[in-house]
């Protein structure tokens, strides 16, 4: 069977588009001053968060420009609130829920994860410029769902 040259060309063009779409999804936030560079999952016992690393939700410095943020979601808030991190930092977020399914979504970015009791959502995010990002919950979690908000402050 002989594939016409134009047909080959269109096949290649289609492949390039598919790769470009995937790249856009993966690196879509480039240019917004924020990049999601990792996304993994770990587990935790939701009823035993006290005494665990989520005992005291906080931001901890672990390297020169590296930070770890331990965040809990619960009806209808996030802790800590606000999450304060310095500019030009790489922050690994560890997010879990104390009760039901929530989400942890930074408004206007592609930083967005479901927050499931028993699981730890892990995301590494680079923050360049000082800015405030609203945090919202995108999973319906009860009557206060629409008021469930937090804040990430990137400070100089
Ligand atoms: Cu938490 Cu919706």
Question: What this model shows, in words?
Answer:
The chain is mainly β and 156 residues long. It has two domains: 1-30; 34-155, Cupredoxins -  blue copper proteins (Immunoglobulin-like, Sandwich), CATH 2.60.40.420. The protein contains one helix and eleven strands. It has one helix spanning 5-26; strands spanning 34-43, 58-61, 66-74, 77-79, 83-86, 89-97, 102-106, 112-115, 119-127, 131-136, 149-155. A hairpin with a 2-residue loop joins strand 3 (66-74) and strand 4. The model has no long low-confidence stretch (mean pLDDT 87). Bound molecules: dinuclear copper ion. Dinuclear copper ion binds at residues 76, 102, 137, 139-141, 145, 148. Dinuclear copper ion (CUA) binds next to loops.
Question: What's the short version?
Answer:
With 156 residues, the protein is mainly beta. The protein has one helix at residues 5-26, and strands at residues 34-43, 58-61, 66-74, 77-79, 83-86, 89-97, 102-106, 112-115, 119-127, 131-136, 149-155. It has two domains: 1-30; 34-155, Cupredoxins -  blue copper proteins (Immunoglobulin-like), CATH 2.60.40.420.
């Amino acid at each position: 069977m002989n594939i016409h040259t134009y047909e080959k060309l269109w096949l290649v063009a289609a492949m390039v588009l598919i790769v470009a779409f995937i790249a856009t999804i993966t690196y879509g936030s480039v240019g917004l001053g924020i990049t999601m560079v990792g996304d993994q999952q770990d587990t935790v016992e939701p009823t035993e968060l006290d005494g665990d690393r989520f005992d005291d939700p906080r931001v901890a410095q672990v390297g020169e420009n590296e930070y770890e943020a331990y965040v809990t979601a619960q009806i209808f808030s996030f802790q800590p609130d606000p999450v304060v991190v310095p500019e030009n930092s790489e922050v690994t977020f560890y997010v879990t829920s104390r009760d039901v399914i929530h989400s942890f979504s930074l408004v206007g970015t592609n930083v967005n994860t479901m927050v499931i009791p028993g699981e730890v959502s892990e995301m590494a995010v680079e923050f360049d410029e000082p800015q405030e990002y609203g945090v919202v919950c995108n999973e319906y979690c009860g009557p206060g769902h629409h008021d469930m908000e937090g804040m990430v402050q990137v400070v100089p």
